[in-house]
From TrEMBL:
Pfam families assigned to the protein according to its UniProt record, in alphabetical order: Ank_2 (PF12796)
Keywords tagged on the record: ANK repeat, Repeat
InterPro entries registered for this protein in UniProt: Ankyrin_rpt, Ankyrin_rpt-contain_sf
Name of the molecule in the record: Ankyrin repeat protein
Organism: Emiliania huxleyi
Annotated ANK repeat ranges: 17-44, 45-77
Listed PROSITE patterns: ANK_REP_REGION, ANK_REPEAT
Gene3D superfamilies on file: Ankyrin repeat-containing domain (1.25.40.20)
Amino acid sequence: DDATPHAGAIDALDEELYVACQQGHVDIVRLLLGAGAAINQAKDNGATPLYIACQEDYLEIARMLLEAGAAIDQTNNSGVTPLLVSCVSGRLAIVKLLSSY
């Protein structure tokens, strides 16, 4: 079945995108987005790549994700949006960026 390996590969891309966003690896995020990683794929706790980039204060990555179409209003399992986590964490540059979308 050709669908199964492909699905696994996409899952791996999605996981790698999340980790790259969490660790601030701009070039890897760019490559993974170009390879088709699912930009809005949430972890078990509901956190998306955009959410974690905002939480960790990676402005350039947040901008890349938004430009690629990341969902700005997608919440984690506690109902927290990327904008709210940015406000609570004092990430003012990211708050300004998110507010422009």
